[in-house]
Amino acid sequence: MDTRILIAVLVAVFVVVLLAGWAYARRRRVQRLRERFGPEYDRTVRQQGNVRRAEAELQQREERVERLHIRPLAESARLRYREHWLEVQRRFVDNPSEAIAAADDLVADVMAARGYPVGAFEQRAADISVAHPLVVQHYRLAHAIALREGAGDANTEDLRKAMVSYRSLFEDLLGITTDRREVA
């Protein structure tokens, strides 16, 4: 066999192995991001309009949150926040609008106590999506309803959905596991 042919075959095999390794690594990265972010992965792909940009965005979120000092709450703080939540829920019966505002404030307080920055809503939701990807959609829904309520466009059923959605995130932030029902 001619040496040039042998070299060409070896280079071709090397290129095929290199491409297969690259494809495998890419597939593993996509799988890891899908598993980590769940429905948030698909939402980000739709929002970005491009899989590569969405994946870059999700990786940037991970890197940002890794630099934060997220910490669990002490048991005494968890109990105090839980009691406060129960009071907010009781207020819902008499004044749903006020209770929604209080729920939003309480969620922000818990986030701050855990070490999350509590700036603009979209940044908070992005930060939360890294460790709480299954409930971030509830947070977005609750926030959207709270904004509609501020404009006078939310009814009592909307406010109930917001309250349930805030509760999902609140319980996840506190580490409380309950039966989570879908909120439409």
Overview of this structure, please?
By secondary structure, this protein is mainly alpha-helical. The chain has 2 domains: 3-67; 75-174, no CATH class. Helix content is 79%, strand content 0%. It has 8 helices and no strands. The longest helix has 35 residues, at 3-37. The protein is elongated. It starts with a helix and ends in a 10-residue tail after the last helix. The model is unreliable at 179-184 (pLDDT under 50).
Topology readout:
Layout: H1 3-37, H2 39-48, H3 51-67, H4 75-94, H5 96-114, H6 121-131, H7 136-150, H8 156-174
Helix pairs in contact: 1-2, 2-3, 3-6, 4-5, 4-8, 5-7, 5-8, 6-7, 7-8
Please provide a brief summary of the model.
With 184 residues, the protein is mostly helical. 79% of the residues lie in helices and 0% in strands. It folds into two domains: 3-67; 75-174, no CATH class.
Tell me the β content: under 5%
Any idea what the radius of gyration is?
A: 23 Å
Tally the structural domains. 2
* Residue share in helix: over 70%
Q: What structural category arises from helix and sheet content?
A: mainly alpha
User: How many separate helices?
Assistant: 8
Distance between the termini: 68 Å
User: Mean of residue pLDDT?
Assistant: 89
